[in-house]
Amino acid sequence: MTAKPANRPLSPEQLGHFAAELDALRARTAATLGQRDADYIRAIVAAVRYTGLAGRTLLFVGAIGGAFLPLLLWPACIAGTLLLALSKILENMELGHNVMHGQYDWMRDPHLDGKTYEWDIAGTGDNWRKTHNYQHHTWTNVRGMDDDVGYGLLRLFPEQRWKPFYLLQPAIAVIFAILFEWGVAIQDLRLGRWFAGKVNNATMREQFRPVGRKMAHQVVKDYVLFPLLAGPFFLPVLLGNIVANVLRNLWTYTIIFCGHFTADAETFAKASVAGESRGQWYLRQLRGSSNLAGGRLLNLLSGNLSHQIEHHFYPDLPANRYAAMAVEVREICSRYGQHYNTGSLPRQFGQVIWRILRHAFPSRPAEPLSAAASVASPLTGAQSSSA
């Protein structure tokens, strides 16, 4: 892998100016929020509803009509599955994820309340708000504090201690991608602690209760209720729902992994966040995040997580603003000599695959380029994981 451009060391004064410019951009953008943003998210709500309705209708038409007109079966079911997958992707990425960050709380719409929104996946909104909104966004890529670093299953950075178990991770990564919503659902349960006897059965039952209810709701809705509405022609509807959920899981996994685990992404030691200034926090978000270049369609389908850097800088601002903000963010980073990690989806995901394969085997953390570079870094303990 080619070495990334070096980040210019910043003095405490420069870090203060860096943070002030990024804070000012946030304030200017927040001051302009209004009807245009409200219309946008309501259009997303409508798109989720009507693509989902169209998808389910076509699945029924294909399942029932195909029994009498076989030529209708596969075209209708394939189109219905794709539309249902699109609905689920939009709901997961552009609607649910962003609403639960509180991006639209200013609208005072109870259906778009970030504290109560419940999305269409196996995981509960409450657990996501804890593991993602708080733990991940507060301690981004801090080893031992951000559970998203490998999700307890994968070794993606050389700083993670190698175990023989990781030899299986190329296969585990594929299974995890297919079942991604279920991995998200159980993330906060920390089942490893239960298996190790550090959490007793009574405590685990209590923690699992809301998770189990949400899992049961999703299973009944997608794999029992809707298929049964097709009567004896239930099988194509069942298969369509399974495939739609898997497509959503694969897409979500791809976008999230591209946002955090490319070759240029860095992890950080716990010591690096002790006494962390606002400017250092921005640098950690920048160095632990990766953008995707692809245009408006990619922005929409990724929930604007194609602008992962901007999302980590401003998680509570409407994501439809990130593309415009990115122009200024990139210019600020350039002036302060900081690498702005972006690339095409194939390029970034190729780097993710490389990490999964490379770090399944023993490897050592990269050595700093020089003592001066290490001392000058405002992120004590930060290490580039491009090895």
TrEMBL record:
BP-aspect Gene Ontology terms: lipid metabolic process
Entry keyword set: Membrane, Transmembrane, Transmembrane helix
All copies of domain Fatty acid desaturase, residue ranges: 73-342
InterPro entries: FA_desaturase_dom, Fatty_acid_desaturase
One Pfam match: FA_desaturase
Annotated TM spans: 58-86, 165-185, 223-247
GO MF entry, a single one: oxidoreductase activity, acting on paired donors, with oxidation of a pair of donors resulting in the reduction of molecular oxygen to two molecules of water
GO cellular component terms, semicolon-separated: membrane
Protein known as: Linoleoyl-CoA desaturase
Organism: Tahibacter aquaticus
